[in-house]
């Protein structure tokens, strides 16, 4: 299995604080069947220097890969980033922020306020040759209020990712169920930050998905993640908006 969104790379952000914690988080994932990781430390184009970020990330990944090799673990690690959305991205070279050897790029949106011209600006990133993945879409209230927005983004080449722990959350259950019914979810990842409160949980999430929804959907999510990791096209089913009844989902 593949984890495409995590903060296991040490000394980069609010995730793993040292190499030992990075290794323990990888081992935590391995125990669930995860053998492919894209490390995605936070990058904010407004506050972070791209060159400094990339140099530090690449150096830390080199150290992490060597530590994994010394342990004899059969694990693949690729570089990436969780890129905070800004119109500044349209004027940047995004090559070093995409998933390694891939056209996919992970983008985080503001939680409460929808960016103006979101669809057109995300579409512009896609026209630059990248395929955006929106991180933890269950967090964005404006997606709950307007699923037509999700449909429009998907039609413009965007993939939607949900965090593993949200599948076990009562707060997100109704929204996720409706999203699955309307083909609005393509990927599940851990967004792991530590070993305890925000652990690696992709394998556990997939087991919940298989139990609560279907084995076919679980397998589809696994296949999608592998295709992204290998820079292959993901088969996207026809998305449709969630209908509201009396103002509720």
Class per helix and strand makeup = alpha/beta
Q: How many β-strand stretches?
A: 9
Q: Please give the share of residues in helix.
A: 25-40%
Cα distance spanning the termini: 32 Å
Beta fraction: 5-15%
Number of helices: 8
The biggest beta sheet is recorded as: 6 strands, parallel
- Output the strand order for the largest sheet: 3-5-6-7-8-9
Segments where pLDDT lies below 50 for 5+ residues?
A: none
Radius of gyration: 17 Å
Give the CA-based shape: globular
Compressed to H and E, one letter per element, the order equals EHEEHEEEHEHHEHEHH
Give an account of the 3D structure:
Strand 8, helix 6 (170-181) and strand 9 (187-189) form a beta-alpha-beta unit. The chain has a 6-stranded parallel sheet with strand order 3-5-6-7-8-9. A 3-stranded parallel sheet has the order 1-2-4. It has helices at residues 19-30, 50-71, 118-127, 141-145, 147-155, 170-181, 202-212, 215-229; strands at residues 2-3, 36-39, 42-43, 76-79, 82-84, 104-108, 131-134, 159-163, 187-189. It is of the alpha/beta class and 249 residues long. The chain is built from 8 helices and 9 strands.
